[in-house]
């Protein structure tokens, strides 16, 4: 199968070489790896340029955006700038972070999954992060049927059905909800262990912590589901302030009549899916 990899990269000099090397070592090589150098001010571009010489699979484009490392808008703007330069001759498209080490057979297994399961829309492994003792531990959200935003692979048909990735906080949740809306499955592969070199959220601007509630509003969760989801998130993370921040973000978006990122019909499906998940936890 043919696949493209798009990597948004902003000041990743400490990690990106290991990411590019792991792509070079794949048993099923990508047709193209497009690195979007997004306003980097360190040695990121120098490292990318070295890999342009190392293999013809690597390509680079430069982008200029805000220097704030905000989730959603910045990274997906860079991804979209790269994706829009690609042709349509691929079977699946990958959005990959620049601080990832993949096992050598990663995309061979992902490709086989797409080939054998025609309903597979989003496929990925599980992310491990290093703890203070140096051990690699599973770091995954509450829902194990979720592919982390750092390692998303989409079938071409699914990606086109969901109309690509939304330039907003919550993009890596709404993509899977919309994939389900259009009849696709989300496949997580426990045998694919991915190393994430920088703990999630470490580089985010402090303002980013207030955006989760806004994302829930933009996905048309509604007040009650947002309340339940925020309580669960705060409980699981042992961070009471997360509940306050989420609800504040939601109510602010409501007062400002912020734009939605899904249609009313898609929102109805999302709420139904969320209520189904909530009810199953009490059965």
Short key terms for the protein model shown above:
single chain, 283 residues, alpha/beta, Spore Coat Polysaccharide Biosynthesis Protein SpsA, Chain A, nine-stranded mixed sheet, 9 strands, globular, transferase, Nucleotide-diphossugar_trans, glycosyltransferase activity, Glycosyl transferase family 2, Glyco_trans_2-like
User: Helices and strands, in N-to-C order?
Assistant: EHEHEHEEHEEEHHEHHHH
Percent range for β-strand residues: 15-25%
- In the predicted model, the low-confidence regions spanning at least 5 consecutive residues are none
Number of domains: 2
**Helix count, DSSP H or I runs of 4 or more residues:** 10
N→C terminal distance: 41 Å
Describe the global form: globular
Radius of gyration: 19 Å
Structural class: alpha/beta
CATH topology of the largest domain: Spore Coat Polysaccharide Biosynthesis Protein SpsA, Chain A
- Considering the protein shown, what is the CATH homologous superfamily of the largest domain? Spore Coat Polysaccharide Biosynthesis Protein SpsA, Chain A
Would you report the number of β strands?
Answer: 9
Protein name: Glycosyl transferase family 2
InterPro entries: Glyco_trans_2-like, Nucleotide-diphossugar_trans
Keywords: Glycosyltransferase, Transferase
GO molecular function: glycosyltransferase activity
């Amino acid at each position: 199968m043919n696949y493209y990899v798009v990597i948004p990269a902003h000041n990743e000099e400490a990690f990106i070489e290991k990411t590019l090397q792991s792509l070079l070592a794949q048993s099923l090589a990508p047709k193209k790896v497009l690195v979007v150098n997004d306003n980097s001010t360190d040695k990121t571009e120098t490292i990318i340029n070295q890999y342009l010489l190392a293999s013809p699979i690597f390509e680079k484009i430069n982008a200029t955006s805000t220097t704030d490392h905000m989730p959603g808008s910045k990274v997906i703007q860079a991804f979209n700038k790269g994706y829009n330069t690609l042709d349509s001759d691929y079977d699946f498209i990958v959005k990959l972070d620049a601080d990832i080490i993949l096992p050598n057979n990663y995309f061979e297994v992902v490709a086989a999954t797409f080939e054998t399961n025609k309903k597979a829309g989003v496929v990925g492994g599980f992310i491990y992060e290093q703890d203070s003792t140096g051990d690699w531990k599973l770091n995954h959200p509450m829902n194990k049927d979720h592919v982390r935003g750092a390692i998303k692979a989409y079938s071409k048909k699914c990606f086109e059905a969901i109309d690509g990735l939304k330039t907003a906080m919550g993009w890596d949740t709404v993509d899977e909800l919309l994939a389900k809306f259009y009849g696709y499955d989300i496949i997580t592969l426990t045998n694919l262990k991915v190393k994430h070199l920088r703990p999630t959220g470490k580089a985010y601007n402090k303002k980013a912590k207030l955006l989760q509630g806004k994302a829930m509003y933009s996905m048309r969760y509604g007040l009650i589901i947002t309340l339940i989801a925020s309580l669960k998130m705060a409980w699981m993370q042992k961070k009471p302030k997360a509940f306050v921040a989420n609800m504040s973000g939601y109510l602010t978006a409501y007062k400002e009549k912020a734009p939605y990122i899904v249609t009313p019909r898609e929102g109805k499906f999302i709420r139904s899916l969320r209520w189904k998940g909530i009810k199953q936890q009490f059965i």
